[in-house]
Amino acid sequence: MYTFSSRIRYSEVDSEGNLSLESLLDYFQDCSTFQSEDLGIGTGYLKEKKMAWVLSAWQIVVERYPKLCEKVSVGTIPYGIKNFIGYRNFLMETEAGERLAYANTIWTLMDMEKRKPVKAPKEMADAYGLGERLDMDYEPRKIAVPKGESVVRETVEIKRHHLDTNHHVNNGQYVRIAMSYLPEGYSIRQMRAEYRKQAVLGDKIYPFIYAEDMVTVVSLNNGEGEAYCVTEFKQNQESRGGN
Q1: Residue 242: which pLDDT band, with cuts at 50, 70 and 90?
Q2: Would you call 238 helix, strand, or coil by DSSP?
């Protein structure tokens, strides 16, 4: 497993002094970027090959949110590449080895000129050196949007700060937008995200929120009702009163 050490910064915590889910997602995303760059198959390599890894799905499970200034180890391990699909785990632990959070992700390697999936080169799989996947309960990639009544919120227009180096909305930005519609005091135990379409500069997102007991689903749609991203949040038992 590829790892790096860090310390929880003030800019990464919520109002209670705990690492926010958005910052946890950033840690995991940065970890995979660091590994790819260190192996010589990062952004420069992909740009030269006219390829990009596009995230298809997140599943993040949180055992405990680390506190301000707490020292942590962040790790990642690619455990499978099948044709144009890649599978990668993430892990955050304390210095003492306490498991704080872990995740599973599914990626699609895209030919950015043809806008089609492309088979991963053998040199890429060889460079990563695939390992064993983490022991966790793996949820399905697809998220079902409830058929019940939804709450519709104000439209969000995509600005430059939403974009990544591929000039599409970064996967973490969708999660940030979706989280802004959660009730105060909603402590997230698990987050899943399914990415269906790519939003770009100037696109408008129409949020639809479905809340049922311990689960909230947020579908971020385009003007035709097609989802860019569907997120599912499951809260900790102790935060139920925040609803």
Answers
A1: very low
A2: helix
Structure tokens at 155: 């439209």
Exposed, middle or buried: residue 30 (CB in 10 Å: 0-12, 13-18, 19+)? middle
Concatenated DSSP letters for 64-83? Answer: -PPBTT-EEEEEEEEEEEET
Quick check: 169 and 198 in contact, CB under 8 A? Answer: yes
CA–CA gap between residue 200 and residue 234 (Å, rounded): 28
* Distance (Å, whole) CA 189 – CA 215: 10
Tell me the whole-structure pTM to 2 decimals. 0.90
- The region that residue 125 occupies, defined by phi over 0 for left and psi between -120 and 50 for alpha, beta otherwise, is alpha
What is the DSSP track for 157-193? E--GGGB-TTSSB-HHHHHHHHHTTSPTT--EEEEEE
Mean pLDDT of the chain: 91
Q: Which tokens in the block code for residue 164?
A: 């990544």
